Amino acid sequence: MRNKQLYLAAIIPLILGLSRLQAQTDKATWTGTVTDIDNNVYKTVMIGKQIWMAENLKTTRYINGDSIGTTHPDTLYYMTESTPKYQWIYAGNESNLVTYGRLYTWYTVTDSRNVCPTGWHVPSKEEWATLTKFLGGDSLAHGKLKETGIKHWDKLNTGATNESGFTGIPGGNHHPKGSFLYMGECGHWWSVTEHDKNFAWRLRLRNDDNIENFFGYAPKLMGWSVRCVKD
Questions:
Q1: How many CB atoms lie within 10 A of CB 215?
Q2: Where are the domains of the chain?
Q3: What residues form DSSP beta bridges with 204?
Q4: How many CA within 13 A on the CB side of residue 58?
Q5: % of the chain residues with pLDDT over 70
Q6: 25 pLDDT tier (thresholds 50, 70, 90)
Q7: Whole-angstrom Cα Rg for the chain
């Protein structure tokens, strides 16, 4: 009898915790899928009145069929280029593509040929702000946007609920000096909105609860993830 009581004392909190997690995920309003020009298929989710991709962009082409370039090698130093239009898979490892998508420079995602599927676009600063406001502001949105668990995030991933269904993952970045950094620790997503000549606005999710620079500006030369939002 005592062993049974100990077992129940241990297992019931786990069951309740899993039930709460499922309830949080179930709050997301899944809207189907969208397919890009390379035939990559993405889950989509409604958050407030916006419909977002729930996965990172993977395309190697603009919607008119033109290819998006990359550097050779992928560790090439390109800081001296003024408007580089590139895409990469993190560390050049094809196994990263399915989960993390590709990393793009700001000049790529603002090209008029459009990296998003027809009827979709890279969000503006204001559209990101609409999303975070709906989720309760920066401090609440940070956790609601993050995928739960440590399958992709590192062992911290504090505060993550993924209540929104956005399923933000830590795809890291590509630095113009040629290095790949911070997979597992941070995810960054571009907006099309400039801050100034050299910087543009982007959203960042971290593996902890620190929301400093949650939505801030950074160099346009960086390679970061993209989520498209429906027109």
A1: 19
A2: 30-230
A3: 188
A4: 21
A5: 88
A6: very low
A7: 19
